[in-house]
Specification:
With about 120 residues, the protein is mostly beta strands. Strands 2-10-9-4-5-6 form a 6-stranded mixed β-sheet, with no helix packed on it. Strands 1-3-8-7 form a 4-stranded antiparallel β-sheet, with no helix packed on it.
């Protein structure tokens, strides 16, 4: 069955960086568009970024566009999210998910990894 295991979250000061990873198994990872989504405290699930199955196409939410970079390593069945210049508003549980854009919001997700940005 589909399994997605996120890691790399933590507590970081404003302006800091984190790199999230998502190890995928149970499906042909290289054939799928993949996304990161997050859920902030008291809010609903929101789309953050997507990457095409070829890795050549990416898209970002406006709030992270100049600060986050999504990438993938199909040889390792792993999805990444490099997060720079973090701000308190980035605090959320981050999940990876299959599919592009809003379709990822209703797809299978892992257990998530918590990112907390605080001084």
């Amino acid at each position: 069955q589909v399994q997605l295991v996120e890691s790399g979250g933590g507590l970081v000061r404003p302006g800091g960086s984190l790199r999230l990873s998502c190890l995928a198994s149970g499906f042909a990872f290289r054939h799928y568009d993949m996304s990161w989504v997050h859920q902030a405290p008291g809010k609903g699930l929101e789309w953050v970024s997507s990457i095409g199955s070829s890795g050549g196409e990416t898209e970002y939410a406006d709030s992270v566009k100049t600060r986050f970079t999504i990438s993938r390593d199909d040889a390792k069945n792993t999805l990444y999210l490099q997060m720079n210049a973090l701000v308190p508003e980035d605090t959320a549980m981050y999940y990876c998910a299959k599919y592009w854009g809003c379709r990822a919001l209703t797809s299978e997700r892992g257990q998530g990894t918590q990112v907390t940005v605080s001084s």
